Amino acid sequence: MVWTVRLDSRPVTRDQVVAVARGAAGVELSEPVLKKLALTRQHVDALADAEDPTYGVSTGFGALAIRHIPPDRRTALQRSLIRSHAAGAGPAVEPEVVRALMFLRLRTLASGYTGVRPETAIALAGLLNAGIVPVVPEYGSLGCSGDLAPLAAVALALMGEGEVFDGTVRKPAADALRAAGLKPVTLAEKEGLALTNGTDGMLGMLVLALADLHRLLDTADLTGAMSVEALLATDRAFAADLQGLRPHPGQAVSARRMFAALQGSEIVASHRGPDCTRVQDAYSLRCAPQVHGAARDTVGHGELVADRELASAIDNPVVLPDGRVESNGNFHGAPVAYVLDFLAIPTADVASIAERRTDRMLDITRSHGLPAFLADDPGVDSGYMIAQYTQAAVVSELKRLAVPSSVDSIPSSAMQEDHVSMGWSAARKLCRAVDGLTTVLSIELLSAARALDFRAPLRPAPVTAAVRDLVRERVGGPGPDRHLAPEIAAVEELVRSGRILGALADA
Questions:
Q1: 30, 196, 207, 273: which one has the fewest Cβ atoms less than 10 Å from its Cβ?
Q2: Model-level pTM greater than 0.90?
Q3: Where would you find this protein in the cell (predicted)?
């Protein structure tokens, strides 16, 4: 861990979530938080001793809430809740998603509205700081009553049961806790619900996707500019006076970035004179700022929703400062689910326009002098023909992933939970969509870099040349056909790591 996120009275930030999720930061609970937890716990203990039943404290759960549970069965009640709710199936989700989920649940516990004991919150922080990641299956959450099954898998590990990843090794949770010097937790009244009743999984994936989409949209502006340059298109359409006629903020950002990236290009300057007969470029070139910019504005809306959710305390029931324990519906994932679905649309569309630019560079009837498929010896060599097939396959999949999950609802728990958000499903498909966009932009970058090489001796702009040169550190220039999959993977790593944008900043 490089630094520590201290949980106190302030809302956590998206940057803090990303830092904890991706292993750059640990967590700690402030003394005021621990005192607040102890004070709130006194209210839960008083209700546990009362004769009148209180949901989540002395009753069963969901449709079984009608049963009052005697004190000598309540430890078994909490243990049974976690074991029964840890009912997921399928492959394990990514460790960074689980760490985000754990951190966000800890953040809600630290709010003081859940009624957990301080030692339970400390134990969850210990799990994070030890790098122990519970195995959370892909399927199981309906995005209502929180991400129940995924959160229960985490709570199960906290109890010393189930399986975890300790580094890259999958092992029993009890063994990992013992090796880290951590003790399993015996849950008390209300704690089972407090550990499982939140939108933390879908919110964590939203925050991670927003961070990735910022990077990818910056990358799309860059790859788009390189394609414009390689295809002998004009930068005039990106000028500030034209963009100002339609004042969408995201569009202005993308146009400004693309225009700046092309400054000083001998290639662009070579066809500015009266000899150029083209008066308009294709939409995939001329309208790139409009598409990329609309995606930026959608990301901005997603950030607004995420920040509101990060300022929320989500549990059911909640323990209020005056001691009341009140049921509520704040665990419903609709606000997060809608924006997760929304973001999948521009993710697919930015990939779609990038694929169209790539296809144009490969087609001799539209590429203005580039060799067919950017091949060294067309006919003997196929060049990047099938790389565009890969783009097309991914774009087709992204269109399918853009179909919303949140319009679907399947009643559960004997009709007690009769409308659900499917927010976890919306989040999972957005994660896959972000990966797909990464692949599509990487192939555009690979193609545009080669196309710029073919424009020699004309030199690209300093910015695009710097990015092309970075690609060349991993992937050779034009020549006879090579095994292409590793080259695509190498460029994907450059895009994922942010090194491409680093080269842009340096230039």
A1: 273
A2: yes
A3: Cytoplasm
